[in-house]
Amino acid sequence: MVIRIITRKMAVLCLLLVSxxxxxxxxxxxxxxxxxxxxxxxxxxxxxxTVKGTTxxxxxxxxxxxxxxxPDGSGVLVISYLGxxxxxxxxxxxxxxxxxxxxxxxxxxxxxxxxxxxxKRRDLTGAVxxxxxxxxALSPVMSPMEALQGRVSGLDIQRPSGRAGQSPNVLLRGNxxxxxxxxxxYIVDGIPMSINDVNPNDIESIxxxxxxxxxxxxxxxxxxxxxxxxxxxxxxxxxxIDVNSYLGLNGFASFPKPLMGxxxxxxxxxxxxxxxDGVDPTNLSEMFxxxxxxxxxxxxxxxxxxxxxxxxxxxxHTLSVRGGTEKTQAYLSLGFIGEKxxxxxxxxxxxxxxxxxxxxxxxxxxxxxxxxxxYRVSNSTNSRINRAYSEYPLGVPxxxxxxxxxxxxxxxxxxxxxxxxNYPGAFANQGRNFSIRFNPYIEFRPIKNLTWRSNFGGSxxxxxxxxxxxxxxxxxxxxxxxxxxxxxSQSMSYSYLWENILTYDVNIASDHDVTLTAITSWxxxxxxxxxxxxxxxxxxDFLYYNIAGLHIxxxxxxxxVQTKRxxxxxxxxxxxxxxxxxxxxxxxxxxxxxxxxNKWSSFPSASVAWRIxxxxxxxxxxxxxxxxxxxxxYGVSGLASIAPYGSLTETETRTPTANLSLGGTSILPVYxxxxxxxxxxxxxxxSANTNFGLDVFLFDDRLDFSxxxxxxxxxxxxWDRRIPMSSGGYDAKNPYVKISNVGTSxxxxxxxxxxxxxxxxxxFQWHSSLTFTTARERLVDIDLGRLSVDELIxxxxxxxxxxxxxxxxxxxxxxxxxxxxxxxxxxxxVPGDIKLQTVPxxxxxxxxxxxxxxxxxxxxxxxxxxVPDFFFGLQNTFRYKGIDLTIFMNGRFGQMIDAxxxxxxxxxxxxxxxxxxxxxxxTNDYPAPGSGFSSSYEEALRFVDASYFKIRxxxxxxxxxxxxxxxFGISNLxxxxxxxxxxxxxxxxxxxxxDPENGGADSFPLFKRLVFxxxxxx
Amino acid sequence: MDKLLxxxxxxxxxxxxFSCSLDEKNFATVSLEKSFGERAxxxxxxxxxxxxxxxxxxxIDYIGPTEAGTDLWVNTGNTGIGFFRYDNRLQTTDGxxxxxxxxxxxxxxxxxxxIHYAKEVTGYDSEAELQAKLAEAYFLRAFANFMLVEQFxxxxxxxxxxxxxxxxxSPQRSSEEAFYxxxxxxxxxxxxxxxxxxxxxxxATKKAAYGLLxxxxxxxxxxxxxxxxxxxxLETAEALIDNQxxxxxxxxxxxxxxxxxxxxxxxxxxxxxxxxxxxxxxxEVAGMNPEFWNRGRTRQYFLPDLGNIGGEWGxxxxxxxxxxxxxxxxxxxxxxxTSCFExxxxxxxxxxxxxxxxxxxxxxxxxxxxxxxxxxxxxxSLVGHVIKNTVGPAPADASIYGQTFEEQVNMExxxxxxxxxxxxxxxxxxxxLMPMLVADPSDLFYADENxxxxxxxxxxxxxxxxxxxxxKKFSASLYVASNQTWMGDMPIIRLGDIYLVAAxxxxxxxxDADKAAEYVxxxxxxxxxxxxxxEMEVAASEVDIDFLVKERAxxxxxxxxxxxxxxxxxKLTKEYLMETNPVSGELFDxxxxxxxxxxxxxxxxxxxxxxxxxxxx
Lengths: 1018, 617
What we know:
The structure holds 2 protein chains of 2 kinds. Helices cover 8% and strands 47% of the residues of chain A. Chain A has 10 helices and 51 strands.
């Protein structure tokens, strides 16, 4: 489809070219001369001057002077120059012209942050997408990455749950690795750090480096893509004060209701009838417990899903001050983000501060630092909402004082309220984290063209989490335990990074731009952790603050983890006349966690770009084609994100967790091999990527689009191979793991990005932007040394299928219906049971049973994967005078999910959305209630095509007119309202009332938000 | 200036180049050689080999594979139903079997690692000292292999450590004979070198090794060479029986008030038990056990319906004392209650009464209403009678946790008796007049079949099929920690079993019924109070394999041996199960069900699942 779009555009282009040439005519000729300058009067050299409708064309010299012959003396000259609005001048017999070109704010001149440097978009040779602050600010999010959903082609972002403070899952250009993390590398102002430490309001822009020619400069950590975040800094000579603030409501969670009232009674009557040969129950006590009957008779209906959820709150307030002189600039920003989730006790508060100073001591010497402080307090709760489907929808949830009734159904002590953890003092789970980053730098410019910059990134973070549960908490009540349980853990991470960057750039003979970069980088990360847990407190008031007061200290221990990395890198950038661009890089990386002898590797890359639009033969297209560039690149990046020490088998102490006393009075020392079986051959996972790109800017930059095609082959994929239990295990339930380089995968895809300014009037503007991605991934091979297999089911690995997220299970094809008794019996089923697809069994003589046999585990098959066929985002922004309206939509199609929410068939109060089979209701959705079919096959009910399309965001804003602003002495004031995630359309009817974005997970449903905010600048 | 800068720059870059090392340092671990080459680490490794024993006894995972599908038990609900019914719910995906498989092979691998490092370990004063320690590894390896070969048959026999030698991705099967060969040689080593007494009661000792070896020899008879292995079994069992005093084992002796069998299961003897040869030793004070307090959960899976039906009569399904009755899984078969045990109130054999709780007392005052009397077909004269609450604070010698539970007050004349499930039949007219819920065999079972009634066929009767006696061997008021957990030791091998092993071996080896009767009678005498001991004696002419099948049921019901016993004694057949417990017999297929499905989890992880096969499932 993308190709078709391109071909269509090309056809239009050709047509235009032909018509232009054809309309050229020759009458009298006059000699026209002139100069071209910019607005300040400086001459512009290299400006293309073309006689409109002809191929006659020339270029200005160093003084901005040109000379051209104009046929019949009445032609029109088209003057075009990169970065400036093209101008048309009617000659009208004049022979001497002075032309002033107006600078265009073209995105081609925007600075794009690439690894260890910056480049203008026009000079880029790799695949890089950029998102600006205003788009990030549009979504009320805690994590900036969430705001990028649908805005960058190739970047697949999904929210895994509605838990407060939850970070989204981010995947760039598909899965390549099996077990290694797929998280991209986040670089904030040149230093790698956690994206969660950054306040979304502090971000100036985000650049996503997608292809290996861009990322291989980061070598070992670049294979998952690199996300460069640039924060807002001070500008010389201006003081800005910004206040951004919003307040929102979180609610209307997407979660189906359990059956209630008459509908629920009918469901149980149906169950009864099916279990008793169609006989109707004579009274309620045949179906329900005596206490349940009493509650039904008292009409005590409760929607437990509704009771469990609340309307939460989200707020974000940021104040920033930026300013300085030519020599010194400083900035400071303070932020607070608070989120209360849809459960009581699920909340996160984040406080952050960011500040920095840059000082130019002389022309030669510059220094500065940036410092980021982040403090986060989070409270979380266990979700019991799924239990709502397993309990009667009955009871009295709260007593007369508004306190949770622990046993909501009077007379039934076995039904514990799913709200029990909200009982005063019953449950607490709190985390507190702070991190400090201090990133100083110095920059020398000892000679012209040579810069040496030394960056240091120091980080110290500390976190603790404490949890407490007493006899009134849900788990304790269901288990009849009485002694309070407490755990407390602390962790400390400290790391530093030191990088030296030497840059030499020179312009040779005016046409040759050469930049050489040399880099060294040294990183050392350490983490220490201490954990304790126990039970029995005389006074619950201690919560988790008095470990010494515990009757029993149960588990305790600490951990130490260290990883180190050393790197060297070099880069050559060469440009000829800004038309032919070349970049060559190589990086040598060594990391500590790989096996000795395999620690080092090198990661080369090369890319070229050709600005076709600058070629003389394209001159006549200057009027409508502002820029066109073809790019091609190849590079290798790596991944070594395995657990530290994973290449070794060592001995560890299992003493505290094994907790073995053999009847003695103390815990015995237990020494066992670590979970990792040594692999002396463990080495890098390497991704070789080829990327082709086309960037086109049209109609005075009114429309621009980019197309990328890539192909990536990843070899030596790291895999935590769980070894067959016959060779032993870490314990009865956890096998040993041998990290190995075992697989090969291939990814390829098309990415399309377009943005257009459809209407540009003084009063009214309409901008659109679209991203579209279609990508395929495939596990090509699993190589286990001596043996090679097609599928390793226990690991979810299937050659020829996507690398991750493949669903291998029974495939539901419907429900056995009346009249199919005989056929069903062949499969060990009866009408009302799930009908499954079977796998034919072929005997030794080659006779197939055509799949007719009793269902068994051998009938499992690959039924789909979580990898979508395509996903897209579309944004439309309208501005009318001071009013702005943005509508952002995104969609994801073709993925299959394992939706837990669909797995409550047969429970005491299954979701009301389930259409279940009855002799009178021949549905194919859900089997008959109470079916005695093997429960193994029930899991087939959970798998569903989760294609969806949603209105992600609608924002309506109003800005105070400039005239009013200046009267009040402010530079900008805008108020806005946003509806976040308001509408969802799913392809499958089974997903009614479910937001499939989180994969149908059942504990923390996704919700909607309504936000009101203000942007204010002084 | 420029020069200076350049030199400085160069120096700086050089220092970066040479100052860095990429060595990995982990302060929290040491190398295998260092740790296992020294005594502390080596012994810590052998300690580690005990951990997985704690995934079996006291957990649900071990009940289905060892007790269900035999003559003794019937399923209550759907839990573990594949084991009871041998239907298509007995699958390779079964979670219990996965735990058994994982537990066995984990233990075997750790033992193999210890055996490997025994060659280089230092720190022992003498070879004998090292051998005594190493013998624990040999013992545990044999224990794990025994479970493995009996449950799964001719599967993978491993003698190598995955930590030091190659991992095997395409494992091959070994014969059952090869398993037995290795187990026997391991246990011979253990018998020779294990100490008579260990400081910690949870460790393997000489008596445990002899006990296990006797059982292994006897079980080996199912593969042929019956007399040869029976003789070895007899010899080994007798060595233990004859040396029991020296090796710290003895049967409890009956007195005039209490039978020896009763003392065997008394809470106060649990942690110092002289009959237990090998135990899962549980710490009740500080929860120093694998999975801490999550121990001793077996009892709850054998409970009757104390909530719905029992609840109407005053019992509680959340009882700390009896256990939590919401995870009910198994109930005794008619064959066990009335054919193995003598269905009589006055039998001298105390073993029914000590194996089962059959009187459940009220947790609240419960007045018998007219409705209740009518719906349970009680005599109207009972209306107004109050079944008295028996819950009270337990004295310290009954409960170390100072809890409140049943059977503490109002126990005179059974004033608080709420649910009564004898294994003898009480005439209906008598039952009508008894002020409690009574369910005797005539209420539970068909008269002429070894089956629980189908309530649909008895519309005129009260449905009492889930009101049955509950196994109480793994429960006592002492050590009850919560309604789910009991912190008593779990016996794994015990002396009474070895007497019956000796009797069976004597029959098989030489047909010596006199000798067999002697051992059987020793066990039987201590099942009665002293004054009635002689009533228990049987003549040599009565003692044959069929007698022993029943005697083992009386003695060992519920102790995780039955399925393996039947397999050995030739009773794991459709014919026998149809006769004794048709629920398990109907779908039983001798060509398939003598071994369990291989866990899918394992098959899914190897490269040769087709070749390996899943044992015919």
